């Protein structure tokens, strides 16, 4: 368990990494992590997240940055993850406004249209995965198996994907692979999932257009 980080430390980090210290706190939240909504002295509004340092954080940030660059509606990563005390800190743009979606016909359509390629990309990795590491090996979809799944998915739906859609699916698959590696380490299951991510990350990133 990491110790809590004070606002002054966060402000100092923002000055170094974002070029401006904290002017005021917009909100503070979090359970296993500390989340600060902040207005900087230069007027920018950002969100900083302070959490335990794990190998998957850098990979997750890379995938999020790629999704944002592709136009997916997610916050723009700005800095980090960096070491801060015994924790890691990162910052992204604050996406303000909006309200929780309520039940209704438009909700399903909005979720489906936003997540169509990401649901397929995640499934392309998950379909061959289990939660158990056998003799240090992590059963999961290889790059070749993922490609076969995505091709089969296109055939099943009768719809050819654009380059951007295929890259989004590959990025989503890498994100879920990194998440599984992180969870496996936190639960002390072994290093199989992390080794699988390390051995295939470069190729998956290439196919994601990074």
Summarize the structure.
With 210 residues, this protein is of the alpha+beta class. The chain has helices at residues 7-18, 56-69, 105-126, 143-157, 163-186, 192-207; strands spanning 22-29, 34-40, 45-51, 77-84, 87-93.
Mind sketching the topology for me?
Elements: H1 7-18, E1 22-29, E2 34-40, E3 45-51, H2 56-69, E4 77-84, E5 87-93, H3 105-126, H4 143-157, H5 163-186, H6 192-207
Antiparallel strand pairs: 1-2, 2-3, 3-5, 4-5
Helix pairs in contact: 2-5, 3-4, 3-5, 5-6
Supply database-style keywords.
five-stranded antiparallel beta sheet; single chain; alpha+beta; 49% helix; Phosphorylase Kinase, domain 1
Structure description:
- With 210 residues, the protein is α+β, with helices and mostly antiparallel strands.
- The chain folds into two domains: 7-93, Phosphorylase Kinase, domain 1, CATH 3.30.200; 105-207, no CATH class.
- 49% of the residues lie in helices and 18% in strands.
- The protein has helices spanning 7-18, 56-69, 105-126, 143-157, 163-186, 192-207, and strands spanning 22-29, 34-40, 45-51, 77-84, 87-93.
- The protein has a five-stranded antiparallel beta sheet.
């Amino acid at each position: 368990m990491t110790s809590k980080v004070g606002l002054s430390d966060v402000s100092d980090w923002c000055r170094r990494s974002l070029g401006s210290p904290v002017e005021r706190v917009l909100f503070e939240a979090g359970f296993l992590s500390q989340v600060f909504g902040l207005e900087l002295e230069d007027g920018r509004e950002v969100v900083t997240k302070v959490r335990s340092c794990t190998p998957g954080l850098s990979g997750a940030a890379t995938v999020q940055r790629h999704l944002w660059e592709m136009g997916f509606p997610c916050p723009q990563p700005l800095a980090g993850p960096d070491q801060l005390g015994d924790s890691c800190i990162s910052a992204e743009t604050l996406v303000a406004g909006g309200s929780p979606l309520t039940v209704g016909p438009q909700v399903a359509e909005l979720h489906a249209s936003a997540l169509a390629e990401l649901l397929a990309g995640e499934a392309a990795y998950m379909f061959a995965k289990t939660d158990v590491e056998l003799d240090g090996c992590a059963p999961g979809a290889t790059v070749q198996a993922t490609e076969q799944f995505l091709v089969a998915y296109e055939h099943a739906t009768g719809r050819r994907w654009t380059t951007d859609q295929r890259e989004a699916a590959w990025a989503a698959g890498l994100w879920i692979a990194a998440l599984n590696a992180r969870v496996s380490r936190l639960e002390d299951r072994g290093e199989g999932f992390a080794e699988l991510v390390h051995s295939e990350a470069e190729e998956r990133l290439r196919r994601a257009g990074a």
